[in-house]
Amino acid sequence: MSTVGYGDVYCETVLGRTFLVFFLLVGLAIFASCIPEIIDLIGTRPKYGGTLKNEKGRRHIVVCGHITYESVSHFLKDFLHEDREDVDVEVVFLHRKPPDLELEGLFKRHFTTVEFFQGTIMNPIDLQRVKVHEADACLVLANKYCQDP
């Protein structure tokens, strides 16, 4: 309808130019009103969803089960200990609930070697997301305080 940027086709009458100005303003207003909706759609992505993007040649293990601050900190302290050989393994945690703030802080301290995904090991789609079929190991952390194991 408009020829902004092209000079070969243009409106010659005042009515045509007036219509073109209103058409452009309405188009800009409609576009501007859609921007917040687009931002909302982009922002509503689940924080711990998505798929594991594993670098080629980098190994990973999947850890699931009783994921708490205490169990994860003990596990990471042992697994990433300096006495071990140079372990270039990414640790992927899979749990049905999002991590609390304390656990999230622990993950951020080990951000180069640890990732968290929300999901369950009972769902094949979640297992595909963390690429459990390519993992070097799948570990289940047990609740040592459980009354009925």
Describe this structure in words.
This protein has two domains: 1-45; 59-141, 3-Layer(aba) Sandwich (Rossmann fold), CATH 3.40.50.720. The protein has four helices and four strands, in the order H-E-H-E-H-E-H-E. Strand 1, helix 2 (69-79) and strand 2 (89-95) form a beta-alpha-beta unit. It has a four-stranded parallel sheet with strand order 3-2-1-4, with no helix packed on it. By secondary structure, it is an alpha/beta fold. It catalyses: K(+)(in) = K(+)(out). It is found in: Cell membrane.
Whole-number mean pLDDT: 86
Low-confidence residue ranges:
none
How many independent structural domains? 2
User: What's the total helix number?
Assistant: 4
Q: Give me the CATH fold name of the largest domain.
A: Rossmann fold
Order of strands in the sheet with most strands = 3-2-1-4
Kindly provide the name of the CATH class of the largest domain: Alpha Beta
| CATH level-four homologous superfamily name of the largest domain | NAD(P)-binding Rossmann-like Domain
Shape: elongated
List the helices and strands and how they pair.
Blueprint: H1 14-43, E1 59-65, H2 69-79, E2 89-95, H3 101-109, E3 114-118, H4 124-129, E4 137-141
Parallel strand pairs: 1-2, 1-4, 2-3
Supply database-style keywords.
149 residues, alpha/beta, Rossmann fold, 4 helices, 38% helix, elongated
In short:
The chain has 4 helices and 4 strands. It is of the alpha/beta class and 149 residues long.
